[in-house]
Model the fold of this input.
Amino acid sequence: MKRVYLDHSATTQVHPEVREAMLPFLGEGFGNPSSLHWFGQEARQVVEDAREKVAGLLGARPEEIVFTSGGTESDNWVLFGSAEAEAQSGPSGGKRNHLITSQIEHHAILHPAEILEKRGYQVTYLGVDRFGMVDPGALEKALTPRTFLVSIMMANNEVGTLQPIAEIAGRLRGKNIVFHTDAVQAVGKIPVDLKKLPVDLLSLSAHKFYGPKGMGVLFIRKGTKVSQFVHGGSQEMNHRAGTENVAGMVGLARALEIATRDLEANSLRLRRLQKRLEEGLKQKIGDITFNVHPEERIPGLVNVSFAYVEGEAILLNLDLQGIAASSGSACTSRSLDPSHVLKAMGVPTELARGSIRFSLGRENTEEEIDLVLEILPGIIQKLRDMSPIYPAKKR
Ligand code: PLP
Done:
């Protein structure tokens, strides 16, 4: 059976050029960068080259790029590290105990925020409009003299809506509040230039742009207050302990290089495929709604609700025919609760339960999209025919 992978927001296959770049460091280039001998110093050079490359591609300085074990660690670090730094700052230390985030963040932000709440911090979870966008004006109104951190994602992982990060950064300017953006779903898909975008902290993750899993970066702009999160050795310029994943760093840097090189061409292709899928679905299936901002969106992500059916049932039926999609984020797809993102966008629960995310990637073709358009209408009709809530007059 031909298998079609349409779940690139969950993860991507390592690009062949990335794999090739990594292989030497899973072999003879095995040195520990902290060792003083030749093996170590060779590895040290490789690590610093990777850091420089990533910095150059993002418009950052090398010393502002810290490698982590992925988006989840970077996000956790931001919340716990900023809270810790605030608590330790000066004579007024610990006075500020309020942070602002949004209801549609990834759980790598939401769960640490909930833990901070249990420790006595106040957290404002901003709502979004029906397209999944945060209102910068509402954010500004939510600021208090006790706000020390604002964390708003750049692109949402379930619906693909892009947030007005530059505008939010503008509104926070001069207020001595740390501004973080979780750019895990944005980097590699839209241009990100940290020379122009005045955020203090930014998380990214290699496996979302054809790099290896378990590799990420936290960008820490020079002068930003954030305490260390992983303690131990003095690696990563004393910012993050643990023997370096040299192959992973090389892979992340190479993947970002390729993603940047191919960004425009890929983006155009993905938008074309996305349009083909959306137009086709509209033509072939009734009672559907698309959950995304009409313009401010990452290329290639289509989140669609099918009335009267369950998303899980659609997914299983698609999988039986070789098509891999997802309902909401990969991390929550095993839970039966409707997506917190769709809920925040005001999508009614019944519709949220019937939502599917198709996230397209570099290897997808028009033929694959057409295959989905051939198979899916039959699946939806079959499920609707079995559904007790499907109106008799539509049968
Ligand atoms: N943030 C967002 C927006 C994500 O989509 C993800 C992964 O799905 C993460 C954070 C977590 O990243 P990682 O899988 O590298 O831990």
About this structure: The longest strand covers residues 301-306.
